């Protein structure tokens, strides 16, 4: 059998924990190479992970390896240029989230994938949890009735990443909204069938990351903390629905971390992780559906969907169109928070 070849651009922590381990678990594809910026570090990465070849020049990698599929695992700023390059070399692409920093770039990525007839997927892995699939079906069946309020939470009490470039605004494009909020927004919008956004209002803060220097994900330099540490927003969706967003890297809340979505309909309500549906009967909570634990296997399921799609199966992926839509929403939320005014969509 002629195995499809896959390469990874950006040998950092998500590449190692998620992409390498999944690709190496399959015997119908070959992980052939990794590209990094620093010679020593990428060499070490390749050795540690048993990847046959490494490069510091992506073009040389494409010319020599001719991969069929590529994972883009660089910091956010470089998603755009690396995805465009991979698509122009005829590869199918799985790009880490967020799609890009600018909506305009996510649009060009989508257009390039269409022009070249290639698959472009984003690793919004939370939507691959069984919980999300179950709830999407139940919402579509109408068990919740008219879902008119949605609460999206992607919050950490003190979880500023101590590695990488997550506090650098130029390289990441922002803080918890573009890094964490984007995940739960995707899960919520996916359940709702990616409805049209009508109006966005947001406010953001930088109150803790520029003062403290240590938390659950290690240490950072408060003098180089350039991003928001919390952002809150209201997103008005078509059909009169309201979505409330709360996202933080650092905020004085009780829980260490909350990643969840709540859907409130006129018949019943639901939480996503784990999927549970409930209603009220005479003032008492009545459970209509109850999963004990949320599905932990979201990353492998996301990668599996991408690889299987590349191999010709009709799997669900977080596609380039949805990637563009969510990037527009992220941009509108930041715009609103920066300008102190609501942003209306046409
Ligand atoms: N889906 C998820 O849950 C999830 C989890 C973590 C990170 N991510 C995303 O993955 C990306 C990387 O995050 P990370 O935590 O692995 O960061 P990281 O800093 O650990 O890794 C990034 C790697 O990319 C390399 N790099 C930088 N610029 C490059 C370039 N132009 N070409 C090739 N390599 C380059 C860096 O040297 C580093 O090794 C980010 O976009 C992040 O949002 C997603």
From TrEMBL:
It holds the Pfam family GFO_IDH_MocA_C. Residues 5-124 form the Gfo/Idh/MocA-like oxidoreductase N-terminal domain. InterPro entries: Gfo/Idh/MocA-like_OxRdtase_C, Gfo/Idh/MocA-like_OxRdtase_N, Gfo/Idh/MocA_Oxidoreductase, NAD(P)-bd_dom_sf. Residues 136-343 form the Gfo/Idh/MocA-like oxidoreductase C-terminal domain. It comes from the Bacteria. Belongs to the Gfo/Idh/MocA family. This is Gfo/Idh/MocA family oxidoreductase.
């Amino acid at each position: 059998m002629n195995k499809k070849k896959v390469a990874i651009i950006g040998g950092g922590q998500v590449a190692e924990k998620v992409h390498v381990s999944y690709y190496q678990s399959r015997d119908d594809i070959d992980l052939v190479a990794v590209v990094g910026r620093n010679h020593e570090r990428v060499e070490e990465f390749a050795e540690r992970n048993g990847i046959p070849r490494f490069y510091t020049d992506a073009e040389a990698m494409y010319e020599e390896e001719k991969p069929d599929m590529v994972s883009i695992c660089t910091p956010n700023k470089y998603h755009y240029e690396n995805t465009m390059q991979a698509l122009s070399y005829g590869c199918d692409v799985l790009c880490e989230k967020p799609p890009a920093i600018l909506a305009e770039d996510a649009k060009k990525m989508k257009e390039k994938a269409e022009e070249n007839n290639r698959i472009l997927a984003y690793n919004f892995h939370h939507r691959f949890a069984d919980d999300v699939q179950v709830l999407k079906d139940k919402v579509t069946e109408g068990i919740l009735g008219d879902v008119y309020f949605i609460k999206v939470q992607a919050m950490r009490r003190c979880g500023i990443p101590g590695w990488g470039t997550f506090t650098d605004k130029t390289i990441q494009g922002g803080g918890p909204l573009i890094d964490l909020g984007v995940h739960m927004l995707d899960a919520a919008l996916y359940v709702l069938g990616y409805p049209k956004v009508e109006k966005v209002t947001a406010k953001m803060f930088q109150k803790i990351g520029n003062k403290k220097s240590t938390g659950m994900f290690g240490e950072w330099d408060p003098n180089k903390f350039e991003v928001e540490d919390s952002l809150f927003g209201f997103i008005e969706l078509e059909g009169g629905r309201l979505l409330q967003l709360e996202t933080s890297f650092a905020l004085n809340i009780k829980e260490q971390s909350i990643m969840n979505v709540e859907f409130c309909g006129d018949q019943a309500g639901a939480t996503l992780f784990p999927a549970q549906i409930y209603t009220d009967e005479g003032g008492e909570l009545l459970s209509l559906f109850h999963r004990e634990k949320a599905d932990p296997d979201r990353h492998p399921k996301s990668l599996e969907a991408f690889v299987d799609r590349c191999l010709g199966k009709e799997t669900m992926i977080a596609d380039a169109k949805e990637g563009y839509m969510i990037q527009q929403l992220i941009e509108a939320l930041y715009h609103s928070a920066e300008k102190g005014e609501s942003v209306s969509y046409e």
